Amino acid sequence: MAGKYTCFDGRINRGRVSVERSCWHEECGVFGIFAPGQDVARLTYYGLYALQHRGQESAGIAVSNGQHISVHKGMGLVVEVFNYDNLQTLVGDLAIGHVRYSTSEDSSLVNAQPLVFRYLRGMVAIAHNGNLTNANKLRRQLGASGSVFQSSTDSEVIVNLIARYSQEPIELALRRCQEELQGAYSLVIMTEDKLIGVRDPYGVRPLCLGRMGEAWVLASESCALDTLEAEFVRDVEPGEIVVIDSKGVTSLQGHQAAHRAHCIFEYVYFARPDSTIDGETVNMVRRELGRNLAREYRYKGDVVIPVPDSGIAAAAGYAEVAGLPFEEGLMKNRYVGRTFIQPTQEMRNLGVRLKLNPIKQILKGKKVIIIDDSIVRGTTSRRIVGMLRQVGVEEIHLLVASPPILHPCYYGIDTSARGELIAAQYSLEDIRKHVDADSLHYLSLEGLFSSVKGEAENFCAACFTGHYPIPIPDPEEATKYSLA
After folding, report:
1. CATH number of 28-270
2. What is the pLDDT of residue 353?
3. Among all residues, which ones are annotated catalytic?
4. Exposure of 359 by Cβ count < 10 A (0-12 exposed, 13-18 middle, 19+ buried)?
5. Is the pTM of this model over 0.85?
6. In terms of CATH architecture, what is 9-22+279-475?
7. DSSP conformation class of 236
């Protein structure tokens, strides 16, 4: 992948290029705040702005004034959906927000979150990050008993389960829901007077708790807390249900798996480098990925450059161990926010140059080691290598700070079928030839796991290993409905 927003169309297919997304997208970001007397809508806006990298398809904020929940949401970036006027209409003491990435097939306002609904106990709003592997099965069961669905999101399945157990307080209803839900999920849920955070039993998707004076905050990543100058308190534990109201914070331990399965790709690519997730600082993990890469593969190059942004820390770590100069040889246009989907090959190539531009004075005539975080289909890597050759780079050695991606994800990441993952279909040498690099190497699994503090069994690395910690009853069923 070539940075958080550097994603382009195209995939290898018998030497030809066809229109497909060439990178993975993180599914969603969630945020919640309980802050009586404060402008919770504007605070949520800032929190979502910090989480924008987790989803650029749609954004939404729901606010409760103690009696009623109001919501505003729309398609596009946070700054496109919200303005001074519509934020002024969202008045209350607690709020939740959501930024979403979806598959192209279900890109519509009806699937934007938060979802707001009425049930026996009043109004409830929900924002969901993740993917249920048994969503289709639950949807059929709920539909057979009279439930009606208006969207194609997994989140609406959770909504209907909550309504099924409406005779119980919502935190106990959520505990009952955990018995039936399979897959990965972090939830922020709001009633008229409560803010609730829920994490799946394996802790696949991140969720943390923070404090800002007398206010409490829930967020997918700690970078959102930093934006509000909130104190990071702790990560929500796998299976935990955190309830925040006028009495403070209470915790209810729901179902917990025998071991954790934190998504290791959060550290490789998805999370912002300034976030801390489950006790690991993302930037430090990425630097160690680069150091381990240098310990495994060493070249006598002239300069080390990253593919921005998520390759920067790994490249710095590589340069440190290799004793080579680190340079920002590719300049990223940070005002180009979302993926270019262009109808012709020429326009797609132009899109690459609009987002990334090589600095000729740094690179010309050099033996360049370029560090990327991962390769999905190889098309972006091929175009970047092509750009480097155009400015006169003598040698290009492409090093990848993660193992080959061999398997799709069923836990909330927008991936393709295994047949569209280049490493699953081609040899290392074939991939090297396709991207036109002088050499190509991936980090080993051992190098990956030694870059994090926890035991390997406490991480989900299914995209690399094919070992899925949460059962996948039927992969086709698991991905039939959209990401949350």
Report:
1. 3.60.20.10
2. 66
3. 28
4. middle
5. yes
6. 3-Layer(aba) Sandwich (3.40)
7. P
